[in-house]
Amino acid sequence: MPSIFLSHTSIDKPFVEKLARDLKRIGVNVWYDKWEIKTGDSITWKIEEGIRENEYLGIILSPEALNSEWVKSELGGAWVKQMQTKKVVVLPIYYRECQMPFFLIDRKYADFRVDYEQGFNELASIFGIKETQAITQDNWRKFTKNRKVDWKLYKIREFEQLVTALVDRAYDYNWSAWVGGTSNEYSITLYCSVKQENEYIHKHISIKLLGENNAYMASFKKQANPNNIKVSDFDTYIGNSVNACDEYVWRFMDDFNSAFGIPQEKPSYFTERFSRGNEIHEAAKEMIRKFNWYKGDKLY
Predict the structure, then answer these.
(1) Burial annotation 103-117 (CB, 10 A radius, 16+ → b, else e)
(2) CB 233 within 8 A of CB 226
(3) N or C: which end of the chain has fewer CB within 10 A?
(4) Which of these, 66, 32, 68, 34, lies nearest to 50 by C-alpha position?
(5) Integer Cα distance of 241 and 248 in angstroms
(6) Is the pLDDT of residue 2 over 60?
């Protein structure tokens, strides 16, 4: 398994932390000071140990990094290691515009300056990790036109996260939830009713993941079952993440409950989905294996 020491300056930490998480997702062991240096540790010794024990040193190139004495020392140590082992150790990671050090000018670098995903794929390829392996839960939308990548699996996982987050939110606010079926996939409606004097006030919000950009769009049709809502009714853009939807729905519910009170009727939750392909068959096989001492693949 490849390993890398990330040499950087503190101003670049948000970028470095995201990069470290993404590298770990694709199976790279990452030495990142925030994770490795604990209270009471010798910073110098931990850094030396990290450079010595990791296969690569990735230097995050930015103007501040090249003026940092810590980064210069780490780079110097890695360069000595490279000369001694006669193997490529230093990996330039071009994050922000800066004057490239002379001894790195002829080196191939991973370019993150304009496009994070492009730079990440370039870096992943150095570790022998194919583009198909570089897809993550955060970047799957970048791969929707790539036939080599099973990006739909990540889309399904994200929608599962969305349903879980919004149903939990509905539960907290005493709203009902209904997830769309095959006639309106990747949709969910959250709704409630509050009695005011002699009438009921109904409130609905439906969200659907749609379009070439796989964006989350909202509809406010008074319809509890999302299967009865037209795609064209989803005309309000929310965002491209679960967090964006969760915050939008939270504000929507909170504003309604603050104005009209907490719904008193018992909510309902319809969250089941239909199987895709041979999922039921595969699930049955997995259940049989779970309660069987035989773990081979020849009997089932």
Answers:
(1) ebeeeebbbbeeebb
(2) no
(3) N
(4) 32
(5) 11
(6) yes
Which residues neighbour 108 within 8 Å (Cβ) at sequence distance 6 or greater?
92
Give per-residue pLDDT as tens, 118-134. Answer: 899 889 888 887 765 67
Contact predicate 58/4, CB 8 Å: yes
Tokens encoding 285: 């096989």
Predicted TM-score of the model (pTM): 0.59
Beta carbons of 71 and 7 less than 8 angstroms apart: yes
Domain layout of the chain by residue ranges: 3-134, 153-270
Residue partners of 123: CB distance under 8 A and separation at least 6: 23, 58, 91, 93, 110
Strand 236-239 relative to strand 215-219: parallel, antiparallel, unpaired?
Answer: antiparallel
Helix orientation angle between 116-126 and 13-25, rounded to the nearest 10 degrees: 50
Tell me the C-alpha distance between 255 and 23, whole Å: 40
No. of helices (H) and no. of strands (E), the chain: 9, 11
Q: What are the respective helix, strand and coil percentages of the chain, to the nearest 5?
A: 45, 20, 35
DSSP H or E run through 201: strand 199-210
User: In the prediction, which pLDDT does 145 show?
Assistant: 82
Superfamily holding 3-134: Toll/interleukin-1 receptor homology (TIR) domain (3.40.50.10140)
**Residue 59: which H helix or E strand, with range?**
strand 56-61
